[in-house]
């Protein structure tokens, strides 16, 4: 039997096999011969969860006894993906599990493939929260993640004749294996009603109530040293089923309270850049924020009786403005419910709270109509006015207010109620100071700090890229897994051919795997030695998937015109979801699919160019694509991508970046070296200037025949003969408006791509540059980012579970 020892708890594959069988039998009530794949998957998950719980309790106990400060990460989104492989790897039980399943006549890969993604997020913000939870555990920082247990996560994307179609996501269809239902942890939350004055005290008389019930998922660290809790709230009715109504035959009405209450945690809003201002969204934001603050105060008051100690015991991070109602709610809990003076309540709350901004896009900055805030949360609206007034008093000339044009600006409110505000890349943080928060920065010059994003190396290198990880561990040992900057130690080995050969082999085999998968899943035949050029992220104009597509069309035409010109074969891979209400983005999706169909059917260019748009992009698909990529497309209009995190995952996995000086691209290029990065395009300042040039798009089109040609083809319906005018919206926007400067950056982008063609032709040089990207990207670990938050924002210490001795 295969054994693995963690902290002395020897787990043999025989142990695991027995544990799997026990859970199948007694938890799932299934006989082995009757069990389906998903039964075995849940049984294995429960067997692993058993081991996680021991570490979890030990961590909780240690945190409780140490009286240490806890970190609370409040996020509307946690884009977790799958947890089975992650848990196995972090517990070091992969081999044992593989052997146990083989003994049971099962295949580990089939079991892993059966797990649905927990898609409780839209994109970057949600995935960052998931990486941060794993790193908080790995660095041993006592923490809770708080969010919503959506019944339906991010929609499933299907293509029907190339158009995006959304289908409800249903991860809870099967029993979720990792969570524990906490019926004993439930809070009554209120909405609406009015506020009366009673002896100088404000009293809120709400008219509606709902219950928030907790579901806990343990988040295990690397090597199972520590485990934290992800507590997700689910909405329940205060009063359940209305029997009287049922008996009166009003069946639907009888079920209404239940259905109405559950609406709050029913589904994730699929927008990731445009706030819809929907009442239900505000209800969701208050629901999880208020439940979390109640839970935080309950835990604090169980251990302390002096409220003034709260800022030393609780660091509450607001993941963007979505939980920003935490400011007024915390003041209400301290002042209205616990009698603290209002000013002191504001100061105490601010000392606990800190806020991360993830976007400068005006349409993404939440602004709630005052009348809606007043109707839904009348007491909070009063407190927001008090907070704003208190902020104004301290500022001689009243420049900044959280209230404007009858709206509550949640960014300003979060800033006012936070002791630290951070951006997510160096460039983004500077732009926060010079644009959206310029006034507030002038008033509070030391409040804004930078914390450049990071990604967890356990999921994004160790798990996703076994071949590369094995090579790294063989070369420098396993320390890199939780000390990623050790990757630098690889560089001395770049001299010996052996290392670079194995490095190239890992990439080659990953690409072969992906080619086979594309053949079976997409019925698309690609050349596994071609340059795998990958752009995977949410579809958005500022991310400029359409600029990539214009270059693809121009390249196709150039190859068709001169097929024997010694082209570097390319496979263009796209993946990403468009927000259902984002018409332009959905047109880009349709256009990419229609262009792909035409290009892939072209026998002349087939050996040199293939295009694939993979449906239903999610965490699991990213884990499959990133290790096989040669080129990482990070081509956003400079000043628009706050950071990016895909860029970091690609660099760590040895893909070279073609990118603008935007977000964390700037820091990636600084660390890997400008000679190992394909830079192009305008800087953020040049973008601002260029936008002032009248007719900047027409000028650029005039100056570049390839661009003009590609636009003309689209405009004439070359890719939509059934509806030639289908994309006039796209071509019209680009030719006359082009706010994201696709046309003005096109020529530089084209030239960068041709430089890349030439560079890729020299595989040894290319692989060396790729290996340098891996070796010099260790700083982009989310462990480093979390340690930055602990030191600069939370003032929190790491703990260790005391050894068995
Ligand atoms: C209100 C609708 C809404 C929902 C989500 C968001 C997110 C802030 C959008 C988002 O995911 N931003 C991304 O956050 C990443 C993590 O910091 C960054 O790396 C990306 O650059 C940023 O676009 C904005 C607006």
From TrEMBL:
Cofactor(s) the protein needs: pyridoxal 5'-phosphate
NCBIfam families with a match to the protein in the record: P_ylase
The protein's name in its UniProt record: Alpha-1,4 glucan phosphorylase
Species the sequence originates in: Rhodovulum iodosum
Pfam families according to UniProt: Phosphorylase
Gene3D superfamilies with a match to the protein in the record: Glycogen Phosphorylase B (3.40.50.2000)
Protein family: Belongs to the glycogen phosphorylase family.
Domain of life of the native organism: Bacteria
EC number: 2.4.1.1
Major enzyme class: transferase
Function, in words: Phosphorylase is an important allosteric enzyme in carbohydrate metabolism. Enzymes from different sources differ in their regulatory mechanisms and in their natural substrates. However, all known phosphorylases share catalytic and structural properties.
Protein keywords: Carbohydrate metabolism, Glycosyltransferase, Pyridoxal phosphate, Transferase
Lineage, top ranks: Bacteria, Pseudomonadati, Pseudomonadota, Alphaproteobacteria, Rhodobacterales
Segments traversing the membrane: none
InterPro entries for this protein: Glycg_phsphrylas, Glyco_trans_35, Pyridoxal_P_attach_site
Reaction equations catalysed: [(1->4)-alpha-D-glucosyl](n) + phosphate = [(1->4)-alpha-D-glucosyl](n-1) + alpha-D-glucose 1-phosphate
């Amino acid at each position: 039997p295969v054994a693995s020892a963690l902290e002395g708890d020897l787990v043999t594959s025989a142990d695991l096999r027995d544990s799997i069988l026990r859970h199948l039998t007694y938890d799932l009530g299934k006989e082995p011969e009757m069990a389906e794949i998903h039964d075995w998957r849940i049984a294995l998950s429960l067997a692993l969860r058993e081991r996680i719980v021991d570490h979890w309790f030990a961590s909780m106990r240690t945190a409780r006894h140490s009286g240490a400060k806890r970190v609370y990460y409040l996020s509307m989104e946690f884009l977790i993906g799958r947890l089975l492989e992650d848990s196995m790897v972090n517990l070091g039980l992969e081999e044992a599990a593989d052997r146990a399943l083989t003994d049971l006549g099962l295949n580990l890969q089939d079991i892993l493939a059966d797990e649905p993604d927990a898609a409780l997020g839209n994109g970057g913000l949600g995935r960052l929260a998931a990486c941060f939870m794993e790193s908080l555990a790995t660095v041993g920082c006592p923490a809770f993640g708080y969010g919503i247990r959506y019944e339906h996560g991010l929609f499933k994307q299907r293509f029907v004749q190339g158009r995006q179609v959304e289908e409800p996501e249903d991860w809870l269809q099967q029993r979720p294996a990792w969570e524990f239902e906490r019926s004993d942890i439930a809070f009554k939350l209120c909405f609406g009603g009015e506020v009366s004055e009673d002896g100088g005290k404000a009293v809120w008389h709400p008219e509606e109530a709902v219950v928030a019930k907790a579901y806990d998922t343990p988040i295990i660290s690397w090597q199972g040293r520590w485990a934290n809790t992800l507590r997700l709230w689910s909405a329940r009715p205060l009063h359940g089923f209305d029997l009287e109504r049922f008996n009166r035959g009003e069946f639907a009405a009888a079920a209404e309270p239940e259905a109405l209450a559950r609406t709050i945690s029913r589904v994730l809003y699929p927008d990731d850049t445009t706030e819809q201002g929907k009442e239900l969204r505000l209800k969701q934001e208050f629901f999880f924020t208020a439940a979390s603050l109640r839970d935080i105060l309950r835990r604090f008051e169980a251990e302390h009786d002096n409220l003034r100690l709260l800022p030393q015991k609780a660091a509450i991070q607001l993941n963007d403005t979505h939980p920003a109602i935490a400011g007024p709610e915390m003041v209400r809990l301290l002042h209205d419910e616990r009698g603290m003076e209002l000013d002191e309540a504001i100061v105490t709350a601010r000392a606990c709270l800190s806020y991360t901004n993830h976007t400068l896009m005006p349409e993404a900055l939440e602004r709630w109509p005052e009348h809606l805030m007043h109707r839904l949360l009348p007491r909070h609206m009063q407190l927001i006015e008090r907070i704003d007034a208190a902020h104004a008093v301290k500022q001689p000339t009243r420049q900044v207010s959280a209230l404007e044009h009858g709206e509550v600006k949640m960014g300003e409110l979060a800033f006012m109620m936070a002791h630290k505000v951070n951006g997510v890349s160096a460039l983004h943080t500077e732009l926060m100071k010079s644009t959206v928060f310029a006034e507030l920065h002038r008033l509070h010059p030391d409040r804004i700090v930078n914390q450049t994003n990071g990604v967890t190396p356990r999921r994004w290198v160790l798990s996703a890229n076994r071949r590369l990880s094995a090579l790294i561990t063989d070369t420098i040992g396993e320390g890199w897994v939780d000390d990623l900057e050790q990757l630098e130690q690889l560089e001395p080995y770049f001299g010996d051919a052996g290392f670079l050969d194995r490095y190239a082999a890992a990439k080659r085999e990953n690409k072969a795997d992906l080619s086979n998968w594309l053949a079976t899943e997409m019925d698309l035949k690609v050349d596994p030695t071609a340059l795998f050029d990958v752009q995977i992220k949410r579809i958005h104009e500022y991310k400029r998937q359409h600029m990539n597509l214009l270059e693809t069309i121009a390249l196709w035409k150039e190859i068709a015109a001169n097929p024997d010109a010694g082209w570097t074969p390319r496979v263009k891979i796209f993946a990403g979801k468009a927000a259902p209400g984002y018409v332009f983005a959905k047109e880009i999706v349709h256009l990419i699919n229609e262009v792909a169909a035409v290009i892939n059917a072209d026998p002349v260019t087939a050996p040199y160019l293939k295009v694939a748009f993979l449906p239903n992009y999610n965490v699991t698909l990213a884990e499959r694509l990133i290790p096989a990529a040669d080129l990482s497309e990070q081509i956003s209009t400079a000043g628009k991508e706050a950071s990016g995190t895909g860029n970091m995952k690609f660099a760590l996995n040895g893909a070279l970046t073609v990118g603008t000086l935007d977000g964390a691209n700037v820091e990636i290029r600084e660390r890997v070296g400008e000679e190992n990065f394909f830079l192009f395009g305008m800087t953020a300042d040049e973008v601002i200037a260029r936008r002032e040039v009248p007719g900047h798009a027409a000028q650029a089109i005039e100056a570049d025949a390839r661009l003009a040609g590609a636009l003309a083809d689209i405009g004439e319906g070359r890719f939509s003969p059934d509806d030639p005018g289908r994309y006039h919206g796209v071509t019209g926007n680009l030719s006359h408006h082009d706010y994201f400067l696709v046309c003005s950056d096109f020529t530089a982008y084209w030239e960068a791509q041709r430089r890349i063609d030439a560079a890729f032709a020299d595989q040894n040089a290319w692989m060396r540059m790729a290996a340098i990207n891996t070796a010099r990207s260790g700083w982009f670990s989310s462990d480093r980012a979390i340690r930055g938050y602990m030191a600069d924002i939370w003032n929190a210490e790491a703990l260790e579970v005391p050894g068995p001795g």
